[in-house]
Amino acid sequence: MQSRNIKGIWWVNGKPEKKVYGNLEFLSPKNCYLNLIGDFGNDNYDIIIGFSDNGKPITLYKCFCTSRSIKSPGLPSTKYHANYAFINVEYQSVADISFKNISISFSSLDEWANISGFKISSKYTDRNIKVDYRKPNDIIIYKDKKFNLSLRFYVNAPTKNSVQKNISIQQTTYYNITATDGEIDLSEVMRIIYILQNFLSFAATKPVKILKIIGESDKSITEFEDIRFNNEIEVLFKSITQDLDTTYIDPYLMLFTYPEIKSKSQTIFKRWFNKSKLLEPVFSQYFSTLYRNDIFLNLRFLSLIQAIETYHRRTTKNVEISEKQHNKRLVEIYSNVSNGTKNWLENKLNYSNEPSLRNRLKDIFNEFDDILSTLVGKKKFINDVLNTRNYNVHFDAELKEKAKRGRELLAVCDILRIMLELCFMKELSFTKNEFKKLIEKSNSFKNYTAI
After folding, report:
1. pTM above 0.70?
2. CB-based burial of residue 51 (10 Å sphere; 0-12 exposed, 13-18 middle, 19+ buried)?
3. 3-state SS assignment for residue 389
4. Which end of the chain is more exposed for a tag (fewer CB within 10 A), N or C?
5. pLDDT per residue as tens digits for the range 187-219
6. Which residues, 6 or more positions from 131, have their beta carbon under 8 angstroms from its beta carbon?
7. 57, containing H or E segment
8. Cα dist from 319 to 278, 368, 424, whole Å
9. For residue range 48-98, what is the model confidence (pLDDT) as tens digits?
């Protein structure tokens, strides 16, 4: 999302008679500020309406005052922070903020989709270079009850000049979300966008950021004679991932691309959306290490090991023996101690029937042994993980020398990340042969083997 500076007049929703001049600054990726020459009076407003100097209505949502100043002589000035800015629409209430369809451009999406409308002649001469372009049709990749998800392709057509010295055609790939009935409210739109951002970051093995969001709503219509069409609405908002320095990644180094999942994209996206709720704390820990590459290495390690432990707890039978057997065992233990000791023991044995972290790691390692064993020995790796985890949680001096640090800890983190990626691929219905083939050509695998 590019930085903007938009001049215009502004008023509080429902009070159009009190208009104030000012400018809207969208300082991507930081903040969206409305600087006024004047004052609305209150500190917080759900909606502020504007009309830009180039004739577009603007809606600012979730606004709060950050500063006021009064100069004598002079005019008062006020600064408001807006969480969202919607360009080319005037929403009259919070309930009105919705979209019939919305398109999102992400970094690396062009490479992941790997679909081009260009055909360039393979035979170049000094007199003939042939370039053909045909815009690809939309491709539906997932159908939900509430929306359809497709790949949509936008094209910047070339400019024709009286003296033509160059020509430029640029194709950009977007995820497009189209409501199946009516419109989708803002909170649901943002939920879908974040799920798609995580999906693409996972597939690319690199963090991706939002480049542009455009949508359509029946609240912004243009009528010309008998023609009625929706205006293009641009959505601006602060995203914590916008300051990421995203670098180009070749499709070949991605975990998987669209052409590689084309035949079962419906199943994969359905599972990703469904699993996003069950595995929310797992995704939270995993993606925190992906989006924040600058965090300390020991914190990255703790996030990854917590993600693995939570994944195992939520996807497998989380007991070592049956509840009936375990309860019988507890009764035998409690019958031989005093009431005071029993209370203490109950707290200590609360999770005594859950698998240990060692056993959780063994389960996951064994499932993907044919891949992981080519990178590291199971017994040593699990011992290294446990010693490092226990030292970084309890800071037991006896474990300090056994805990990994520096390049060795980085290697452990890389293996943990690969383990999680294998687990996610399993949840998405990839077969063992498929994810073995895909993981071994991916950026994660090659980065580890390069250490």
Report:
1. yes
2. middle
3. helix
4. C
5. 999 999 999 999 999 999 888 989 999 999 988
6. 118, 119, 120, 121, 169
7. strand 57-69
8. 19, 21, 22
9. 999 998 889 999 999 999 898 887 677 888 999 999 999 999 999 999 999
